[in-house]
């Protein structure tokens, strides 16, 4: 499978994402539900701590990817839902660190929402991966 970034501009490079990603020759697609700061028992963790919530959401997403036989290098699209953009941007480096391995960088959509499934959650991340 081949992946190619489609970027008519360069400003997105400062935020570690692509405007579009074209895939050819892919035979499998994994659609991941939104992952948040949730324990293995389904309980929300780290109330009001964006850094800890973002870390656990990324860890949970990585666990789903791994269980499906995928890796960050396979991710072509992320959708990040947040109840607080300011806190998200203060901790955006957490996300960038995970995406260092992704070539090309995935598409990232950031969406502000009033609340998530549990009111103490600040962020949720869903992904699409191909191989």
TrEMBL record:
One Pfam annotation reads: Ribonuc_L-PSP
Record-listed E.C. numbers: 3.5.-.-
* Keywords for the protein's UniProt record, in alphabetical order: Hydrolase
Read off the CDD domains from this record: YjgF_YER057c_UK114_family (cd00448)
Origin: domain of life = Bacteria
The protein's GO terms of the molecular function aspect are:
deaminase activity
What's any one GO cellular component for it? cytosol
Q: Does the keyword Protease apply?
A: no
Q: What is the protein's given name?
A: RidA family protein
